[in-house]
Amino acid sequence: MASSVTQTSYPYLKDGPCGVSPVAHYTVMANVVNAANETQAQRKLSITVTLPAHGTDSTSWQISRSPPYPVIFFFNGFLLKPAYYSAYASRLATWGYAVVQYDTGRWPILKDRQELPIFQQLIDWLSTQSGLKEAIDLGHIGVAGHSRGAKLAALHFASGQSSVKAAFLVDPVDNTRETPESVDYPSAAKALKLANRPVGIAGASVITGCNPVGSNWEHFWPNVGDGSWLLEVNGASHNTFLRASWLMEKALDLLCKRGPTSHEDTIGLTMPAMTAWIDKELRGVQMATTDDQQSLKTQDSLLSSFFAWVNMKVELKLVEFTIKASEQQTHITT
What we know:
Layout: E1 24-33, E2 40-50, E3 69-75, H1 86-94, E4 98-103, H2 112-115, H3 118-126, E5 136-146, H4 148-158, E6 164-170, H5 188-195, E7 200-204, H6 217-220, E8 229-233, H7 246-256, H8 263-283, H9 293-298, H10 302-315, E9 319-325, E10 328-331
Parallel strand pairs: 3-4, 3-5, 5-6, 6-7, 7-8
Antiparallel strand pairs: 1-2, 2-4, 8-9, 9-10
């Protein structure tokens, strides 16, 4: 299957039909619970918003990507910066998504219980911002994130909020020895099991103390709903899903025992799956059928092309790809 498809047949491998606007930065104050005495306190947030530069109604991309744009909240890993995930934000923007990120600063460290309410405050803030509120669709929200950020994304997705319709988790980490399950640190895997909703997951094959056994994607996978996707990136480690300064990357490589797959290749293998999953869940992109003559005349549907691409990567042993189904797991093979 893969051998008959050319590189140009893999749209999700590259930027989409939209441009990317200059990244906008904002500073706002959020209300958080003071962990010491349960009183209300304020925390300064640095917010980053990445918008498409323009939309398109081109039928070659199957679906309108004009404003208002669905919103993706991307949560960064523990004590990491939104800028480390700018590649994901830019790629999603080219496919017609507005991407919102925030940074709470490093001290004092917020517990999960303190940070979770910030999400709704950000939604409320966005709904009041002239120039932003007209460009975005807060009725169609997706959540994504890396490491602890993926845990936060999972908790928001599992909460049942009707506007949150998709989640993609990048090497998620749940409770650990340092943050055992408690009121302050709820389990995202347990929340997903109760919600019984499908998610997309990208996971590292290299397991270390940064994505420990009992907390990593292997812990999440049994608890997600049928139809979920799992992309395991062979040779990737926890830290190779981000890009930082040379010095920071070296420090994280030492801390997390980097595997043989580079940062660039790990992200390059993750972004097509992330974009395809979010398109499927938020925009309803479907597989082409034999009755879809227009799609067959031009190219396979976006999802068909994605599966052709992932088949090729499985054949090359760069990734493993699984779709969760009732009573079984379907492995994509060539």
